[in-house]
Amino acid sequence: MRILLIASAFNSLTQRVFAELRDRGHHPAVHLVTGDQALREAVRRHAPELIVAPMLKAAVPEDVWSAHTTLIVHPGPLGDRGPSSLDRAIQEGAECWGVTVLQANEVMDGGDVWAHAECPVPPVGKSDLYRNEVSDAASRAVLLAVERFAAGNSSAGPSPSPSPGPGPSDSPSPSDSHTPRPQHGPGWDVPVRTRPYLRQSERRIDWSADPTATVLRKLRAADSQPGVSDELLGERWYLHGGHPEDELCGTPGELLATRAGAVCRATVDGAVWLPELRAGRVPAGVAGVKLPATLALGERLPALPEVPAPLQLPEGRRTWADLDYRELGPVGLLRFSFPGGAMSTMHCRRLLDAYRFACSRPTSVLVLGGGRDFFSNGIHLNVIEAAADPALESWANINAMDDLVAEILTSTDRLVVAALGGNAAAGGAMLALAADEVWCREGVLLNPHYRLMGLYGSEYWTYTLPRRVGRAAAERLTGQALPVTAQSAQRLGLVDRTVAAAPQEFGAEVARLAGLLADRPALAERIAAKKAARERDEAVKPLAAYRTEELAVMHRTFLDPGAPYHALRAAFVRKEPVRGTPEHLEGTR
Ligand code: COA
Fold this sequence. Notes:
Elements: E1 2-7, H1 12-23, E2 27-32, H2 36-46, E3 50-55, H3 62-67, E4 70-74, E5 80-81, H4 85-91, E6 96-103, E7 113-120, H5 126-152, E8 184-185, E9 188-189, E10 193-194, H6 200-203, H7 212-221, E11 228-232, E12 235-240, E13 243-245, E14 255-259, E15 262-267, E16 270-274, E17 276-279, E18 291-292, H8 293-297, E19 323-328, E20 331-336, H9 345-359, E21 365-369, H10 381-386, H11 390-409, E22 415-420, E23 424-425, H12 426-433, E24 437-441, E25 445-447, H13 461-469, H14 471-480, E26 484-485, H15 486-492, E27 497-499, H16 506-519, H17 523-540, H18 543-559, H19 564-573, H20 583-586
Parallel strand pairs: 1-2, 1-3, 3-4, 5-10, 20-21, 21-22, 22-24, 23-25, 24-27
Antiparallel strand pairs: 4-6, 6-7, 8-9, 11-12, 12-17, 13-16, 14-15, 15-16, 17-18, 19-20, 25-26
Bound molecules: coenzyme A (COA).
């Protein structure tokens, strides 16, 4: 089917729907909505059989939805209405949530139901939940709705879909699943709950009264956007991210310690870690973007003890650690998790140190990653933007990234597995390719390209990407700059294994699979073969040569103030609204 995706941004869910539809033989095109007139023109131009809105903040004009079936994805269960569904679900401590696919009509979120799906709500931030559990549920519901629509419009062409059949919670109508079901009708009356936008006044933390559990719910409901507006050290800041701390405590509201860029703040019954801050009123010298907390505070930060988390956290400790190493017999598990998947120079160096430690251990399989949400999205554009000299910081960051990748590529005494529980893009996707095997949770999206940030890229991608997929596919992936599903990536050879696991279960499943891998009798042979292959490749063209060539282009870009990278980066970190639909999304047939 020709499907037009209309969205406020080509965000993770829109990308997921786009890539999943393509995998199923449909022809999706994307229109980023900037106004009603441009939307009407896009609809005329594309003449879609179906319109789907995976993430749309504006109302669809009546002349569009009355002429074309338009499906709206609402991140809430049946009957839920309003613009802050997920925020409210988390803030109120819901344990189960859902996604509903509705047909657009004159009532916001009030249209007929095409499909819906449920999902659990683990204790994570809103964006993490959205990119994982919600994205899985939305993908199920959208594919089912599209399948139903196609079945009711036989002229609409094939809809080969492995999506689950209509179960009780998925089915719009027991009698005719090819038509949507009104929210109110004989035998089916959806209880409607319309809730308003969640304002900062409701998000406010009362440090003198709110227990840690409440503070965490408020922080998670606002993570990663908009953050919780708060006063800190006499100024207004948005607090981003929130993790419990079980040892440190102090006067409620006071800062107690720092750890790897985060600050620890006391609550009435414990403390929480705040990894990132954004200036509420942009003071001089701060870029107004979300930054690691200590960097954002800069000289405002009082003298506080730096309390590093042990790399091997004792069982049962509840604290925040963005790096964590565990061992299960012959398997080493090095988990890392950086907000937004962004890896600053400091993140790269710390991960490299942890990686070296992991390599000093007597294991035969080392798993890198394995956590939930983003694996990596490459160099830290916010930290770069806020640096006194962004060109210099870009250079330091890419070199730190390359040092890490080089270490992985030259680890020839064990098998390294990159385990992606969440999405990866740009240099972060290439980081995964440095491993011997790449495992992705089903539902993961890869964006193995740099073009949209105006970069040539490094991370030895000119070695690893063609090595995996061949030259032609490497050119296509980097040139087209489109997201690919884990399944497509596996077909291409980019990924070795997709793991069917819920986001919360991915880590345990990866550990189990890594154990099986380590037990294979042929493992030693495989490690020896890998070492020999590396030596052969080195003789043909040394790794250093790939790095030099890639970095020569990157260096030119960084040092050229007129290079598009600088403006693209500034627009990205400041979240400038989209001005239109990028050409590469217009049509992909
Ligand atoms: N540096 C800093 N922040 C980054 C980042 C990076 N490299 N990549 C992602 N983020 C942040 C985003 O700003 C966003 O922050 P927010 O939650 O406060 O809004 C968050 O991570 C999630 O990203 P978002 O763009 O909302 O997610 P998405 O799933 O819609 O899109 C990407 C994911 C990776 C396609 C998109 O974030 C992107 O293009 N990132 C830049 C990748 C890149 O060019 N890296 C540099 C070259 S190596």
